[in-house]
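hey so i finaly got around to running the thing on PepSY domain-containing protein from Paracoccus liaowanqingii. pasting the sequence first so u can double check i didnt mess up the copy paste, my clipboard has been acting weird all day
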Amino acid sequence: MRRPAPLAILMVLVLAAPAAAQPAPPPDAVDPWATSFRPIPFHQIAEAVTTRYAGRLLAAETRPPSPPERAMGAELVYEFRLLTPERNRLNIRVDARTGRFLEVAGRGQLQARRAAPAQPQD
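ok and heres what it spat out for the 3d tokens, dont ask me to read them lol
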């Protein structure tokens, strides 16, 4: 069995030393966005989509916001593809933090839109 060359060992130690020598950032130096950003759970947004539009969810994924969505304050977007009863496909984009519907695109939006639930009267 061949022994590693001393130069190779030295290079590994030199390259690994700076990374190991750097202290961890203090707890108060943590990025505030990382601790303050709390998206709504994916399943709750999916339920809101199917409550608002009739159809079957085909796909769902997280996406970065487009520039106009970012200008509206969105930091993360949930995107859903829904097949309506009329066999149209809707693309629905929702702000992951607030649950606000940002965009609904596709044919048959009005036909797939469910009536809003009645508000209880006092």
